[in-house]
Amino acid sequence: MSEIFNEENMRRMLGESVPEGETLVAGIHAIAQVMCIKGIYGKCVRYEDRLSPDERGGIIALSKEKYSSNDIYIGITSHFLVIVGCERNAYFYQYEDAPKAAEEDVLEVTSDIFLKDIGTCYLLTDIQRCEMKKGWMGSVKCWLTMKNGSCFKLLFPKLGGLGGGMPHHKEYREAIIERLSGK
Asked: In this predicted model, what pLDDT tens digit does every residue of 84-98 receive, in sequence order?
């Protein structure tokens, strides 16, 4: 059985991105078909693998994108949506220095932010739009758009893999669908 379809592995990987004080309520294996992650960061400098705080640093707009299917874990806590890749993946990064942005849209960098960690955790209240449609073989297609412009095209499979490694997939999938749908 693949380690991807292992609930303990999923909980461990999602747990690394769950904010302090939050508890994972539900998590499943899913497929990301499009991931377009956006962010605007201030008082920082850019290095190859991270953004670092710098009082003299400027504002950097970051776009982190992937347009091919890849395995992810998606989970929810009481207040957050968490998305992490099951395996190491490559993304396309674009940067814009000194973009014009409203002050409230700029996240001040106070400690190193590694590029691999950007786009893994969102407030549920930051979901601007969520569209769900039935897919093939009992799957559910989900298109999420966040208030900051990030968007995700996801596929929630009906089953959590073969071999019984994800025994709570069905109930967790329903909990995630209900929560993302605003219920």
From this structure: 999 888 899 999 987
